[in-house]
C-alpha cells in the first residue's frame, strides 16, 4: 500500500509541476532583420580569358551604418577603399577597387544601445557584400 501511494504521489508531482516553457523570454532567441545603409559605387574591369569579358562589380565607400528593422543601430563606421591588382588569372593584368574594414574606424552596439566589442558575426556582416542580414542580438 505504501509503495502504491508513493507511486501515485510521484506521478501527481510530475504531472502538476510547472515545466519551463522553451518560449520563455529568457531563452527565446530573437532574430532581427538588419540592413546595411551607405554608398555603393560601381566599377568594371576587363577579364582577359579565351574571350575578353567586361566584369561589373560594386564596392562600399565612406560611412555606413547597420540597423535593424526596429531601428536598433548595431554597427557604424567607415570603409577604406583599396586598389587591387590581379595578374594571376585571365591572361592579363587588371585592377579593381575593393572595400576594406579597419575595425578602429567602427563602433558596435548591442540591442540595448550599449557599445560592445565586435563579435565574429558582426565583423562578418560588415565585411559581407550583402545589404540584408538576419542576426540574433543578445
Describe how the helices and strands are arranged.
Elements: H1 2-16, E1 31-48, E2 52-68, E3 73-86, E4 94-109, E5 115-116, H2 120-127, E6 132-136
Antiparallel strand pairs: 1-2, 1-6, 2-3, 3-4, 4-5
Quote the distance from N terminus to C terminus.
52 Å
The number of domains: 1
Strand order of the largest sheet: 5-4-3-2-1-6
Major sheet summary line: 6 strands, antiparallel
| Count of individual helical segments | 2
Q: List the secondary-structure elements in sequence, H or E.
A: HEEEEEHE
| Average of per-residue pLDDT values | 84
Helical fraction equals 10-25%
Radius of gyration computed on alpha carbons: 26 Å
The outline comes out as elongated
Count of DSSP E strands? Answer: 6
Residue share in β-strands: over 45%
Oligomer: single chain
**Low-pLDDT sequence parts:** 24-28
Task: Provide the structure class.
Answer: alpha+beta
Task: Give an account of the 3D structure.
The protein has a six-stranded antiparallel sheet, covered by helices on one side. By secondary structure, the protein is α+β, with helices and mostly antiparallel strands. It has one domain (28-136). The protein has helices spanning 2-16, 120-127; strands spanning 31-48, 52-68, 73-86, 94-109, 115-116, 132-136. The protein has two helices and six strands.
Amino acid at each position: 500500500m505504501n509503495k502504491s501511494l508513493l507511486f501515485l504521489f510521484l506521478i501527481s508531482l510530475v504531472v502538476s509541476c510547472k515545466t519551463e516553457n522553451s518560449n520563455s523570454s529568457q531563452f527565446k532567441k530573437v532574430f532581427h532583420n538588419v540592413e546595411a545603409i551607405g554608398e555603393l559605387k560601381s566599377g568594371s574591369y576587363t577579364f582577359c580569358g579565351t574571350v575578353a569579358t567586361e566584369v561589373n562589380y560594386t564596392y562600399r565607400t565612406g560611412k555606413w551604418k547597420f540597423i535593424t528593422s526596429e531601428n536598433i543601430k548595431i554597427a557604424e563606421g567607415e570603409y577604406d577603399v583599396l586598389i587591387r591588382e590581379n595578374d594571376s588569372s585571365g591572361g592579363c593584368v587588371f585592377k579593381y577597387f575593393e572595400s576594406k574594414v579597419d575595425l578602429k574606424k567602427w563602433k558596435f552596439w548591442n540591442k540595448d544601445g550599449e557599445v560592445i566589442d565586435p563579435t565574429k558575426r558582426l565583423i562578418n556582416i560588415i565585411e559581407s557584400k550583402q545589404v540584408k542580414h538576419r542576426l540574433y542580438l543578445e
